[in-house]
Amino acid sequence: MNSQFVMYEEEFTRISAICQRLTRDANAKVVFLVDKNGQLIAAAGDTQNLDTTSLASLTAGNIAATGGIAKLINEKEFSQIFHEGERDNLHISIVGQRVILVVIFDQRSSLGLVRLRVKRASEELASIFAALTRKSGQPHAVTPFAEITDEDIDNLFS
Q1: Is the dihedral of CA 112, 118, 120, 122 positive or negative?
Q2: Is 26 exposed, middle or buried (0-12, 13-18, 19+ CB in 10 A)?
Q3: In terms of CATH, what superfamily is 9-157?
Q4: Inter-CA distances, 44 with 12, 47, 87, 112, Å
Q5: What is the pLDDT along the chain (158 residues), one digit of tens a residue?
Q6: How many CB atoms lie within 10 A of CB 28?
Q7: Residues 6+ apart with CB under 8 A from 107
Q8: How does DSSP classify residue 37?
Q9: Is 73 helix (H, G, I), strand (E, B) or coil?
Q10: Nearest-5° angle of CA 52, CA 53, CA 58?
């Protein structure tokens, strides 16, 4: 599937609000959303001391590697991954087969709470990305130049 899509301000605002709410409701340190190419889409929480660009790329690589493992054992994919550390934990999930949702949390939260809150947020995000895909599929939404006619171009260069 082509993971390229056009992001509009309205949808970005909604996505950011969901990430902020998830950070609060899951008592997480950081929540970020990444496309499968490793591009950061949105982030919320205590991100100032994090290299979010590297985290986004490495998370996408993690998903790709895990996808390879899934294929080796005849699974489609692993939709959720959990990494437990000494201080921080990562919950990684694939949303709508389009984007990757990452929640970083510590002892102030629990895996059960994170999973519960991620489920709701994932449903909302999947709905937004499905709508973006439909919206981007419309010829006038793909490019701002769609309304320019051949006559306009001829007049410009004549």
Answers
A1: negative
A2: buried
A3: Dynein light chain 2a, cytoplasmic (3.30.450.30)
A4: 13, 7, 19, 20
A5: 444 567 788 889 999 999 999 999 999 999 999 998 889 999 999 999 899 899 999 999 999 999 899 999 998 888 899 999 999 999 999 998 889 999 999 999 999 999 999 999 999 999 998 888 887 765 444 444 555 666 766 666 76
A6: 27
A7: 87
A8: T
A9: coil
A10: 95
Cβ atoms within 10 Å, residue 52:
16
Its pTM stands at 0.80
Q: How many CB atoms lie within 10 A of CB 119?
A: 11
Residue 130: Cβ within 10 Å count: 12
Structural contact between residues 133 and 70, judged by C-beta atoms closer than 8 angstroms = no
- Neighbour count for residue 64 (Cβ, 10 Å): 12
Domain borders along the chain are 9-157
Residue 17 burial (CB count, 10 A):
13
Through-space distance between the first and last CA atoms of the chain, rounded to whole angstroms: 41
Tokens of 41: 């889409």
Answer yes or no: are the C-beta atoms of 103 and 122 closer than 8 Å.
no
